[in-house]
């Protein structure tokens, strides 16, 4: 298999999500954002048809990176410290988006919902037959997760773009994890860490009744 020109390897992305997890069951912000940056690189390599998706994700990652390089950077070291800090300082609006449009909590919530899609998509890809269609796996996982939070026009644009996805094996090879079989094995090993990050975040947001932040 030809090496990718841009040196992208999904292994690094999966390792970043693994590195988010601490012994105290908290989620470290920097590897979380590193994982997302890697995913966006991969998304960009799929073509300009996904630009509208990567643009929104990049905006959100940059909001979080800004917090991590600000005077308050320590408050944003983990998702848990961020939630504690923003809630205690009145930086989160539970009702009106306009009041705190760039809170870390609402921004991470959008990425968190997208992580649910990613988890389902990669699991679908991993357990699919060789002749399965990537676009169908992607549409099914999107409809079962992120689509519930998107208006009709975004859902339409997203499902149209999914039709441009490469075949299952080409997609797996594009991850640069070896043969499609090796990629499937790697996903089996690494996905539990992505799931764990998702679960811890979901619990944290549920505990603070923040799963519907506007
Ligand atoms: C190895 C496989 C990995 C593939 C990499 C894929 C990375 C996908 C990254 C998706 C990030 C999507 C973030 C979306 C956040 C969001 O829901 N934003 C909406 C709400 O934001 P707001 O600030 O207004 O409350 C916003 O309206 C979204 C706009 C853009 C459209 C989002 C469509 C999401 C489709 C997700 C699937 C991506 C297709 C990947 C193909 C493999």
TrEMBL record:
Superkingdom as given in the UniProt entry: Eukaryota
Protein's UniProt name: Ceramide-1-phosphate transfer protein
Keyword Glycoprotein recorded: no
InterPro entries the record matches: GLTP_sf, Glycolipid_transfer_prot_dom
Compartments reported by the entry: Cell membrane; Cytoplasm, Cytosol; Endosome membrane; Golgi apparatus, trans-Golgi network membrane
Catalytic activity entry: N-(9Z-octadecenoyl)-sphing-4-enine-1-phosphate(in) = N-(9Z-octadecenoyl)-sphing-4-enine-1-phosphate(out); N-(hexadecanoyl)-sphing-4-enine-1-phosphate(in) = N-(hexadecanoyl)-sphing-4-enine-1-phosphate(out)
GO CC, alphabetical: cytosol; endosome membrane; Golgi apparatus; nuclear outer membrane; plasma membrane
Membrane topology designation: Peripheral membrane protein
GO process annotations (BP): negative regulation of interleukin-1 beta production
Gene Ontology MF: a single term: ceramide 1-phosphate binding
Boundaries of every Glycolipid transfer protein domain copy: 28-176
């Amino acid at each position: 298999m030809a090496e990718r020109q841009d040196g992208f390897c999904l292994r690094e992305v999966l390792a970043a999500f693994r590195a988010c997890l601490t012994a105290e069951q908290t989620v470290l912000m920097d590897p979380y954002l590193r994982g997302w940056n890697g995913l966006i690189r991969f998304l960009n390599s799929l073509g300009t048809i996904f630009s509208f998706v990567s643009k929104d994700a990049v905006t959100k990652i940059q909001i979080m990176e800004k917090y991590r390089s600000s005077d308050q950077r320590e408050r944003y070291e983990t998702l848990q410290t961020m939630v504690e800090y923003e809630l205690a300082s009145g930086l989160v609006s539970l009702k009106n988006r306009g009041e705190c449009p760039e809170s870390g909590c609402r921004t991470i919530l959008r990425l968190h919902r997208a992580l649910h899609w990613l988890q389902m998509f990669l699991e679908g890809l991993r357990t699919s037959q060789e002749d399965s269609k990537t676009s169908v796996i992607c549409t099914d996982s999107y409809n079962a997760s992120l689509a519930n939070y998107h208006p009709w026009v975004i859902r339409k644009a997203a499902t149209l773009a999914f039709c441009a996805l490469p075949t299952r094996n080409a997609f797996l090879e594009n991850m640069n994890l070896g043969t499609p079989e090796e990629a499937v094995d790697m996903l089996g090993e690494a996905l539990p860490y992505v799931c764990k990050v998702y679960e811890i975040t979901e619990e944290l947001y549920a505990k603070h009744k923040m799963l519907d932040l506007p």
